[in-house]
Amino acid sequence: MFNVSDLKLDGRALIDGKRVQGAAVFSKTSPVDGRVLCEVTRGGEAEIDLAVTAARAAFEDARWRGLAPAQRKRVLVKFSDLLLAHADELALTETLDMGKPVRYARAVDVNSAANCIRWYGEAVDKVYDEIAPTGKSSLALITREPVGVVGVIVPWNYPMIMAAWKIAPALAAGNSIVLKPSEKSPLTALRLAELALEAGIPPGVFNVVPGFGQEAGEPLALHMDVDCIAFTGSTKVGKRIHVMAGLSNLKRAWTELGGKSPNIVFADCPDLDRAVEAAVGSVFFNQGESCNAPSRLLVEASIKDKFLEKALALVPRYAPANPLLPDTIMGALVDKTQMDTVLGYIAAGQSEGAKLIAGGAQVMGDTGGFYVEPTIFDGVTNRMRIAQEEIFGPVLSVLSFTDAAEAVRMANDSIYGLQAAVWTSDINKAHGVARALKAGTVHVNQYDEDDITVPFGGVKQSGVGRDKSLHAFDKYTELKTTWIRIDSPL
User: Fold this and answer.
1) Where are the beta strands (DSSP E) in 225-384?
2) Backbone angles phi, psi at 372, to 5 degrees
3) In sequence order, which residues have a C-beta less than 8 Å from that of residue 136 and are 6 or more positions away?
4) CA dist list (Å): 167 to 49, 164, 422, 472
5) Rg from Cα positions in the chain
6) Contacts of 280 (CB under 8 A, 6+ apart)
7) Nearest CA to 185 among 24, 334, 311?
8) Is the pLDDT of residue 1 over 70?
9) Which residues have C-beta within 8 Å of that of residue 489, sequence separation ≥ 6?
10) Has residue 226 got a pLDDT over 70?
11) pLDDT per residue over 455-486, tens digit each?
12) Which distant-in-sequence residues (6+ apart) come within 8 Å of 184 by Cβ?
C-alpha cells in the first residue's frame, strides 16, 4: 500500500516523450490540508504550440495511426494494465490533488479509467467500415479516418475518468493528443502520460500541458493546427470553446457541460428506502462535485415529509472527514474558491426563503482544508438560484409537485438537460415521463448506474456530443467516401 511519503510527484509538462519545465510554474496545494504538493508547469502559448507541433509530427509520420488496429489494441490494453499496477499511487495522488476520499479514488476512479482504456483498445479492431448500396456500376467505400490532432481539456472533479473518456477513443482511433488538465488537479494526467509511454504509445502521440484556462486552454482551442477540441467543464466556458473553434480553423468542438438534474419521486415509488439512499448518496458523492448529481429532488407532496424524514436520518453518514482515511465517505472540496462558491449558494438559498434543514456550514477549518457539511434545503421554488444554477457542491434542493404534468414542467424548466430520474411502480407513467423529460439520460427506479457501453452526454446547454460507448468514435474520426467506377460487361 502506498503512503504519502512514497509519492514522488512531478509537475512538469510531458511533451514529445520528455518532461518539460516550462517558462513558469505554480505551487499545487492539497485541499485535504493545505500542504504544498509540488511545483507544476504553468503552461502557456509556447508550451501549447510545442505540444501541438509534436502531436502533428507524430500524426503525419503515422508512428501511431499507421499501426494496425490490433497493434494499437495491444498497447492500450497494456496501458490499462499499468494503471491497475499503479492503482494505489494514482488513487493517493488523486485524493491529495482534489480532495475526494481515497477509497473512491481507488475503487471508482482508477478502475473506471483503466476499464475505459481497455474497452476502447478491445473495441478498435472490431469496428467495421461500410460499403454503400449503390448500383452495379460503382463501389462506394465509407471508411473512418482519425481526425488528426485532438486537443483535450478536462475538469478537476474526476481527473482520471474524464481524461480516459476522451483519450481512450481518440487514441484507439489513431489520433495524436494534447491534454490540458485543470490547474486544480493536474497530477494524475501527467502520470498517465508517463504510463502511456511505458505501455508503448510513441513519443509525441500523447502530450500533457498543465496550466490555467486563459493561458493554456485558450491557445489550445484557438490553435490552427488542432483538428478537434474535446472539453468537459462549465457551460460558460463551453460556450467560449465553441466560439474559439469557429474563430480559428472551424475545428470540431465537443463539449460535455453542466447539469441540474431532476430526481422525480412519485408517491407510488416501489422502494422508498432505495429512492432515499439514491437521492442522498448520489448528490453527496464526490462532495457533490459531479455534473450529473441529482441536485433537484422533486417529491410528490403526499410523501414529501416521510421522504425527508428518511433522508435526514442518512445525512450524518456523509459528515466530511479526512479523505486519506479508509472509511471516509465525503472529503474536501477542491479549493477555497469552490468552497466559497458553495457557501455563497447556501447563503443565497436562505436569503431567497428556502428552509435550511441540514448542514450549511464550513467544517474542519483548522485542518487547512476545505470542507462543507452535506446540506439540504426544503421549500425550494423553481425560480430560486439554488434550483436553477449548478452549485457543484453537497447541496440538495427539495421541491414538491402534485401530478406528473407538474413534475415534468418543473423538471424541464432549466437550461440544462444532462440527466434525470423517475421513481414509480407504474410502467406507463415511467415511460410517459421519461419520454417527456429533456435529458440525455433518464434513470428509472435507480440513479447513476453506469457502464462504459452506454453513451453519456446531454441536451440543451448541457453540451454537444457523447462520451463513452462506440458513439464516442464519431467525435474522433472523419467519414470518407471513396467512389470507384466499375466498367464491367457482366
Assistant:
1) 228-232, 252-256, 262-265, 296-300, 355-358, 362-363, 371-372, 375-378
2) -130, 140
3) 486, 488
4) 19, 5, 33, 10
5) 23
6) 311, 314, 315, 318, 374, 396
7) 334
8) no
9) none
10) yes
11) 999 999 999 999 999 999 999 999 999 999 99
12) 97, 98, 156, 334, 335
List, in order, residues 6 or more apart from 482 with CB less than 8 Å away: 140, 141, 143
What is the reported pLDDT for 2? 60
Give dist(CA 476, CA 144) in Å, integer.
9
d(CA 453, CA 465): 15
Query: CB count, 10 Å around CB of 80?
Result: 24
Q: Quick one: CA dihedral 438, 439, 443, 447, positive or negative? A: negative
Q: Is 25 exposed, middle or buried (0-12, 13-18, 19+ CB in 10 A)?
A: middle
38 given a catalytic annotation: no
**Cβ–Cβ under 8 Å, residues 127 and 144:** yes
Map grid coordinates 471516509 to a residue: 328
User: Cell match 427506479: residue?
Assistant: 445
DSSP per residue, 20-61: E--S-EEEEE-TTT--EEEEEE---HHHHHHHHHHHHHHHHT
Contact 371, 343 (CB under 8 A): no
pLDDT tens string 166-223: 999 999 999 999 999 999 999 999 999 999 999 999 999 999 999 999 999 999 999 9
If DSSP codes are grouped into helix, strand and coil, which group holds residue 115? helix
HSE-up of residue 431 (Cα within 13 Å, Cβ side): 2
* Whether 291 is catalytic: yes
Indicate the residue type of 44. G
Take residue 104 and report the three cell numbers written for it.
Answer: 473512491
Find, among 297, 303, 306, the residue nearest to 380 by Cα. Answer: 297
Between strands 375-378 and 355-358, the pairing is antiparallel
The catalytic position among 256, 300, 373, 390 is 256
pLDDT tens-digit readout, 278-305: 999 999 999 999 999 999 999 999 999 9
If 0-12 CB within 10 Å is exposed, 13-18 middle and 19+ buried, where does residue 403 land? Answer: exposed
pLDDT digits (tens, 9 = 90+) for 378-402: 999 999 999 999 999 999 999 999 9
Using one digit for the tens of pLDDT, what is the confidence trace for 353-374?
A: 999 999 999 999 999 999 999 9
Give the DSSP letter of residue 291. Answer: T
Catalytic residue among 47, 269, 291, 373: 291
Q: Got the DSSP string for 420-436?
A: EEEE-S-HHHHHHHHHH
